[in-house]
Amino acid sequence: MLKAENLTLYVNDNGSRKCLLNDISFHVDDGEMLVITGPNGGGKSTLAKTLIGIEKADSGKIMLNEQDITDYDINHRANAGIGYAFQQPPRFKGMPVSKLLTLAAGRSLSIDECCDLLTAVGLCAEEYVERQIDGTLSGGEMKRIEIASVLAKDHELCIFDEPEAGIDLWSFSMLIQKFEEMHKEKKQSLIVISHQEKIIDMADRIMIIDDGEIKKIGKREDVLPYLNGVQKCHNCAENRERRA
């Protein structure tokens, strides 16, 4: 359904050319949940932004349902069926939550429909539906409203960048239930960037990215032992640094 071929992205870093994505190739099948994980700064969010069109790859190709969307901008990719939830959601002073959800849905939503979306991400709907999306909202509140905006419309593929960041345990449990519903019941294709064990355990396949490269990709049961070994080595290295 989604196919990325040889995605490569460079940026200028203090006068030198730095590679953020190096020849990334993978696919996501219909109804599949791919979890992308790996060290911070390894290129996970850069890849997600490249898929939605925020970043423009220097080379490579992106296909959605056998349609070449490489040259599509972010609006055309959204219209083609890609939903995206930012790691750090933008704020829109003066815009109420109900308006954002209506814009995200692409149609007029009733207050009851908006409330259902907010309830699904663990927010008390009556308190939030007419709140402005500004600095009065915490990071966790913004994160859940952002996720609700993605849920407002059916997509061919949804991309969530660390959806668990900044939310409490109760809301996280509701989020897990929503992902299970999207994956198992709606058979929706998902890319989820996460370090959270419960989300990783839900994956059909896992992809590990570090230094802008795919270090490992495969079925959950095949990649988990490798991932656990990498994390164990990383923890040992951190402990050695503390003792030094």
TrEMBL record:
Domain ABC transporter: 2-236
Keyword entries, A-Z: ATP-binding, Nucleotide-binding
InterPro entries per record: AAA+_ATPase, ABC_transporter-like_ATP-bd, ABC_transporter-like_CS, ABC_transpr_LolD-like, P-loop_NTPase
Spans traversing the lipid bilayer: none
UniProt GO molecular function: ATP binding
Keyword Nucleotide-binding appears in the UniProt entry: yes
Pfam families: ABC_tran
PROSITE patterns: ABC_TRANSPORTER_1, ABC_TRANSPORTER_2
PANTHER family: IMPORT ATP-BINDING PROTEIN
Protein name: ATP-binding cassette domain-containing protein
Taxonomic source organism: Ruminococcus hominis
Lineage: Bacteria, Bacillati, Bacillota, Clostridia, Eubacteriales
